[in-house]
Amino acid sequence: MIFTYNKEFVGDVLMVIVANNEDAKLSVERKGNVARIFRQDTAETVAWNIFQVSDIVDIQQSGQIFLTDEEVALLNQELAKEGFSETLINDLQPKFVVGEIVEMTAHPDSDHLNICQVQVAADETLQIVAGAPNARLGLKTIVALPGAMMPKGNLIFPGELRGEKSFGMMCSPRELQLPNAPQKRGIIELADSEVVGTAFDPAKHWQG
């Protein structure tokens, strides 16, 4: 679940992204200051717009924001007041973490893509299809997990690349908009001593 807010350019509207619309046709159901955006084919909710949100919670930041459980509870009260039965579930887990490539095989339908098994926690490994020229077995890098928002605003959701499932993205310094990032292809390379699953910290993980 991703919360975004930009009062200057969008207005006093909190946008809550809960699922990938997968380019499906969408419809909107609005009740009072709450709008539910859902897929026409499945009726699955993919986003919420909560208008005049400053009457509910105080938001000072712009872009992707992170709310407390108490603030999300207030938003759920607003949804219920307007007659919606669904609730927002806060997700405070880091979405950019240290990962390690533990398996790598060439994509059967590409001359530059690899199918990587990337450990992102002590008990979790994700399949990520990547075209980074410096990807290699044992490399530690920064992984954007499903539900992440990149600095440019694009969202990371599970998908497929040439028929192979991919559940995240290994990031380059340029994609993370790190200072003095080299303007060339290649994922960030971390020291072998970095611990898998650690939340990304630019001050710690980049000395560009």
TrEMBL record:
Enzyme Commission number(s) of this protein: 6.1.1.20
Pfam families: DUF4479, tRNA_bind
UniProt KW keywords: Ligase, RNA-binding, tRNA-binding
An example molecular function term from Gene Ontology annotations: phenylalanine-tRNA ligase activity
Segments forming domain TRNA-binding: 90-201
Entries under PROSITE patterns matching the protein: TRBD
InterPro entries for the chain: DUF4479, NA-bd_OB-fold, tRNA-bd_dom, tRNA_bind_bactPheRS, YtpR-like_sf
UniProt enzyme class: ligase
UniProt-recorded name of the protein: tRNA binding domain
Native organism: Streptococcus gordonii (strain Challis / ATCC 35105 / BCRC 15272 / CH1 / DL1 / V288)
